[in-house]
């Protein structure tokens, strides 16, 4: 029986695509839903899965071909054996245990909403190792969080499909476990080829999309000047268009700098031998990209003030033991600052708004982002509807989110949707800083170290515990008056916490 492989729906208003890459060739055995090829449109990259298991009999549309919606791409002969099984098929066959039905696939777990791929960062087991059910096999790294992958069954790790450094999509197979009676037989057969497979997976050359190569040649732009967003860093047609547009928009004098990062200076051989080069994690790359985007997009300005923490510290000292006994949570300063910010945001709503094109979107709620430093980098878990929460609820939420952040257990959903952010550099000893916006938010409050300083109080010099506050804001939407008013309201609420109870 023959099955047709056709172009899937490409999205609204998209009528054609270019065949970028074929992952299989005629004669290869294919499984149902296995990726056959990748199509490239003006907006997205679309992977085409196999509609049935069998053999890829014929490729109708070769790489570089332009095809319309529902066009015929290939033909699959169902149930027919391939004349010569592909290397991947041989490896999979070798990995299968002697007893049928006793191999278990290890798949990529749920990565969270809007996350489509991850990088295999570490394998805790190697081929041939015995594993227990739910034992950690490997760790995946996404743009935001690390995800541990447990063993779905007990047995022997028969095959590692995706080696360390491999980028996998949300439905990819990571490994194969031989369970039950076939486990012992499977381990020796697959122990030798696995390292080679991993090396091939991590060391393969990345082939740019044919249409991208053509576009680069026509534009006269070098491959190094284009940042690839396709699979494994593959350059797509839209990437070339962005690079050409950026080069055209930049002034002639600065064009070379806009196209490529500044090169390193000369390094002596002696110094080079003592250096260590480590690839940036996906999280660090995302942090770098988002912070630079914030600088390039928003008109960031920072205003400063200082707050006398005497009353907050006295209130905390008086009630912290009773608070912890009743609520089971420590009374910290973050709940005071969160409450003060929620109070000020109601008076200055533009600080809690965001720009969407030519519209301003005002939020009638406060989803408070609390920046947290982790070994992997800075993350910002979000406390939802913080303006509706009590001091105890805020403290419990901050403690729980902070622990999950340090353990790398935060989901993407827990770090999305924030409307305003608080960053506490004071825990590291920072006395003064200018925080950077967390797009698309329009404001971020920087807290700093509490330090005793001489202050003039009613004509007398007294020692007071003082903290500098910094509000960075997007001047496109927030005027100076609004920013200063916001910061003054926060200061007033912290210097006299009773104002929060009386909504003043």
UniProtKB/TrEMBL annotation:
EC number: 2.3.1.61
Pfam family, any one: Biotin_lipoyl
Catalytically driven reaction(s): N(6)-[(R)-dihydrolipoyl]-L-lysyl-[protein] + succinyl-CoA = N(6)-[(R)-S(8)-succinyldihydrolipoyl]-L-lysyl-[protein] + CoA
Names of required cofactors: (R)-lipoate
GO CC annotations, alphabetized: cytosol; oxoglutarate dehydrogenase complex
Annotated InterPro entries: 2-oxoacid_dehydrogenase (IPR050537), 2-oxoacid_DH_actylTfrase (IPR001078), Biotin_lipoyl (IPR000089), CAT-like_dom_sf (IPR023213), E3-bd_dom_sf (IPR036625), PSBD (IPR004167), Single_hybrid_motif (IPR011053), SucB (IPR006255)
Function: E2 component of the 2-oxoglutarate dehydrogenase (OGDH) complex which catalyzes the second step in the conversion of 2-oxoglutarate to succinyl-CoA and CO(2).
An annotated GO BP: tricarboxylic acid cycle
Family: Belongs to the 2-oxoacid dehydrogenase family.
Name this protein carries in UniProt: Dihydrolipoyllysine-residue succinyltransferase component of 2-oxoglutarate dehydrogenase complex
The organism's place on the tree of life at top rank: Bacteria
Quaternary structure annotation from Swiss-Prot or TrEMBL: Forms a 24-polypeptide structural core with octahedral symmetry. Part of the 2-oxoglutarate dehydrogenase (OGDH) complex composed of E1 (2-oxoglutarate dehydrogenase), E2 (dihydrolipoamide succinyltransferase) and E3 (dihydrolipoamide dehydrogenase); the complex contains multiple copies of the three enzymatic components (E1, E2 and E3).
UniProt pathway annotation: Amino-acid degradation; L-lysine degradation via saccharopine pathway; glutaryl-CoA from L-lysine: step 6/6
């Amino acid at each position: 029986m023959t099955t047709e492989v056709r172009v899937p729906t490409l999205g609204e208003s998209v009528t054609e695509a270019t065949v970028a890459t074929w992952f299989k060739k005629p004669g290869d055995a294919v499984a149902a839903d296995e990726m056959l090829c990748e199509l490239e449109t003006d907006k997205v990259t679309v992977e085409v899965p196999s509609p049935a298991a069998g053999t890829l009999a014929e490729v109708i549309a070769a790489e570089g071909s332009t095809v319309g919606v529902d066009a015929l791409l290939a033909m699959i002969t169902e149930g027919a054996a391939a004349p010569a099984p592909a290397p991947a098929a041989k490896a999979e066959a070798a990995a299968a245990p002697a007893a049928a039905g006793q191999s278990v696939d290890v798949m990529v777990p749920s990565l969270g909403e809007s996350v489509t791929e991850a990088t295999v960062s570490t394998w805790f087991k190697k081929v041939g190792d015995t594993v227990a059910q739910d034992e950690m096999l490997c760790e995946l790294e996404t743009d935001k969080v690390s995800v541990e992958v447990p063993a779905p069954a007990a047995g022997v790790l028969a095959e590692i499909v995706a080696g360390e450094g491999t980028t996998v999509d949300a439905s990819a197979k990571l490994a194969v476990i031989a369970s039950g009676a076939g486990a012992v037989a499977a381990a020796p057969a697959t122990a030798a080829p696995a390292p080679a497979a991993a090396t091939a997976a991590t060391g393969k050359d990345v082939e740019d999309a044919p249409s991208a190569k053509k576009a680069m040649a026509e534009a006269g732009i070098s491959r190094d000047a284009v940042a690839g967003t396709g699979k494994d860093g593959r350059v797509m047609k839209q990437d070339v268009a962005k690079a050409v547009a950026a080069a055209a928009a930049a002034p002639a004098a600065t064009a070379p700098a806009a196209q490529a990062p500044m090169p390193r200076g000369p390094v002596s051989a002696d110094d080079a031998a003592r250096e260590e080069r480590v690839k940036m994690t996906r999280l660090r790359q995302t942090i770098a990209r988002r912070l630079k985007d914030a600088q390039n997009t928003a008109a960031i300005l920072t205003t400063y003030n200082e707050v006398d923490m005497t009353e907050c510290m006295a209130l905390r000292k008086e009630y912290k033991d009773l608070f912890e006994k009743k609520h089971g949570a420590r009374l910290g300063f973050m709940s005071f600052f969160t409450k003060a910010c929620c109070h000020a945001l109601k008076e200055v709503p533009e600080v809690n708004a965001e720009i969407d094109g030519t519209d301003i979107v005002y939020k009638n709620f406060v989803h408070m982002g609390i920046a947290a430093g982790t070994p992997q980098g800075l993350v910002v878990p979000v406390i939802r509807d913080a303006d509706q929460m009590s001091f105890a609820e805020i403290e419990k939420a901050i403690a729980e989110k902070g622990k999950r952040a340090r353990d790398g257990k935060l989901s993407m959903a827990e770090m999305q949707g924030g409307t305003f952010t608080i960053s506490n550099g004071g825990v590291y000893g920072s006395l003064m800083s200018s925080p950077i916006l967390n797009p698309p938010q329009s404001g971020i409050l920087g807290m700093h170290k509490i330090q005793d300083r001489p202050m003039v109080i009613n004509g007398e010099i007294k020692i007071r515990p003082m903290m500098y506050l910094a509000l960075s804001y997007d001047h496109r939407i927030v005027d100076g008056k609004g920013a200063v008013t916001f910061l003054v309201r926060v200061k007033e609420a912290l210097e006299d916490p009773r104002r929060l109870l009386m909504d003043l």
